[in-house]
Amino acid sequence: MRNILFHICATLLGLALAVFALRYTTDLWAPAVVFSLQLHAGVAMMLLALFCLALRPGAVSMAMLCATLLVVCHAVLMIWNSLPPTFSTETTSTRSLRVLSFNVLGENLENGGAIADYILQSGADIVYVMEAAPVGLHLDRLSKIFPYRIGCGDHTSTCDLLLLSKYPLETVYVGNLSDLRKDRFATAQIHLGSVTLSLAAAHLSKPYFDKYHTDELAGLGEVLSKIDGPLVLAGDFNAATIAPDMQGLLKRTGLTTAGLEPATWPTGAGILGVPIDHIFIRMPVMAQKLSRIPSSFGSNHYGLIADLTVPSGGLSPGL
Questions:
Q1: What is the separation, in whole angstroms, between the first and last Cα of the chain?
Q2: With contact defined as beta carbons under 8 Å apart, do 122 and 140 qualify?
Q3: What is the CA radius of gyration of the chain?
Q4: Distances (CA, A) of 246 to 18, 155, 282, 286, 306
Q5: pLDDT tens digits, 258-285
Q6: Residue 142 C-beta-side C-alpha neighbours within 13 Å
Q7: Do the Cβ atoms of 174 and 149 come closer than 8 Å?
Q8: Taking a C-beta distance cutoff of 8 angstroms, is the pair 275, 300 a contact?
Q9: pLDDT tens column, 150-204
């Protein structure tokens, strides 16, 4: 019985390791769906390898344990390398900027009012909203605090991607990441003192739609790599930062996360979920704090709030 159990566990572990080995040997889109789960799966595989080692100590069990440790360590290393530089308080002229990003779920209409209330009291300067229809019903209230926007009738005919700002938005561009959805990519610029800060918003397709996710990120990276200077990119990417195409985006654009990323989806998984919603920054934007909002407000995602600092000459919001 002990031998049978060992062979079953070892076979399952070998198959799982083979899937993750594809990360380093191929760019096929199908296995990439699970690469966002590399840390989760790595820990699970490591526990299974320890169980195999307890069942049958030996070279095979030790080799499988070492392989699982490599999977986990690589995931941790990618997370570590994606973190922003340490925040410095020595910079003399900076302006604080609070950014909120939240996929509110398009069919979540009954909670639109509560979400709008939260946005208004959040203290955010810039708000990214995905699947924004529930919030779009409350634009009159929101416009009193956020007089500038992209989406829900402003620069778009859709109410999916919405960007709200206390600062005037300039050089506005709205486009499509692919032919699956319209108006899921937008860029604009705001001025913070003498600094021009570029904003970018994105809502990517799910990674199991053929190669759409990878192709959308490639196009996104091409556009953002041409934008000079400080940049904030936020939205729903439907993949964790450790996914291969997400790693490619960060390397190509010089972006980092805004801190250690909390899980945002699915909401029922709590801290064991996957961080597929992101706020990315590029120097000289600096990160002070990244946190998950306290409630999902009926969405299947949690939102994020990032407290940032930007070098500034002291411009006040254009209210």
A1: 73
A2: no
A3: 21
A4: 21, 28, 15, 21, 20
A5: 999 999 999 999 889 999 999 999 999 9
A6: 30
A7: no
A8: no
A9: 999 999 999 999 999 999 999 999 999 988 889 999 999 999 988 999 999 999 9
